[in-house]
Amino acid sequence: DTAVSQTPKYLVTQMGNDKSIKCEQNLGHDTMYWYKQDSKKFLKIMFSYNNKELIINETVPNRFSPKSPDKAHLNLHINSLELGDSAVYFCASSRGQMGTEAFFGQGTRLTVV
Amino acid sequence: GNSVTQMEGPVTLSEEAFLTINCTYTATGYPSLFWYVQYPGEGLQLLLKATKADDKGSNKGFEATYRKETTSFHLEKGSVQVSDSAVYFCALSDRWNQGGKLIFGQGTELSVKP
């Protein structure tokens, strides 16, 4: 059983399109995250949700809109895709307390052409 | 603001060599510190962690000690294997941040040759 699963694993799309990435966790965690990994492998948090409520938004363009229908799911919708959005996007979950482990999904490699 | 700095890679070692990957941090509070590992094509997995000064985290032969006086959390392994080839990330979670978000270093790629 995969703890944090995200789909799709690969996504190739044209500039200007709108796309979504889905994430689900079966760990019973209250907190979920989206991280972006750039081409140099650098990881940066984008959003954090706790019990369906947004608690962190790290100055991400408003073309990116996370949605949490319930605490086990956190989806990422991206409007008007740009070349610079090409990256690997990781979903993660944790108990949301400092010092607790975050569990990561396998990542979604987004390529905008 | 809070930050994490790791030694630059790639690091290339022969099998059974000793590994050190340096990590230093800047934080306003008393952070928890982590090492995560990313194998090719996969997500990140927790390797080890330490939540307070002088704690030593260890797992799979890897160790790191939380040194408050030098604000460091260096990763070590006595004898690396080819299967240890991966990208290693040092990270912190600060008490004053909400929701346990992680701040990562830039990652260090390790390549172990037989």
Helix/strand layout:
The complex is a heterodimer of chains A (113) and B (114).
Chain A: E1 4-7, E2 10-13, E3 19-25, E4 31-37, E5 43-50, E6 53-57, E7 64-70, E8 73-78, E9 87-94, E10 103-104, E11 108-112
Parallel strand pairs in A: 2-11
Antiparallel strand pairs in A: 1-3, 3-8, 4-5, 4-9, 5-6, 7-8, 9-10, 9-11
Chain B: E1 3-6, E2 11-14, E3 19-21, E4 23-26, E5 32-38, E6 44-50, E7 56-59, E8 62-65, E9 75-77, E10 86-93, E11 103-104, E12 108-113
Parallel strand pairs in B: 2-12
Antiparallel strand pairs in B: 1-4, 3-9, 5-6, 5-10, 7-8, 8-9, 10-11, 10-12
Essential attributes:
heterodimer; A: 113 residues; mainly beta; seven-stranded mixed β-sheet; four-stranded antiparallel β-sheet; 0% helix; 56% strand; B: 114 residues; 12 strands; 49% strand; globular
Explained architecture:
The complex is a heterodimer of chains A (113) and B (114). With 113 residues, chain A is an all-beta fold. Chain A is 0% helix and 56% strand. Chain A is globular. Helix content of chain B is 0%, strand content 49%. In chain B, the strands form three sheets. In chain B, strands 2, 5, 6, 10, 11 and 12 form a six-stranded mixed sheet that branches. The radius of gyration of chain B is 14 Å and the shape is globular. The termini of chain B are far apart. Chains A and B meet through strand 4, strand 5, strand 9 and strand 10 of A and strand 5, strand 6, strand 10 and strand 11 of B.
Summary of the model, kept short:
The complex is a heterodimer of chains A (113) and B (114). Chain A is mainly β. Chain A has no helices and eleven strands.
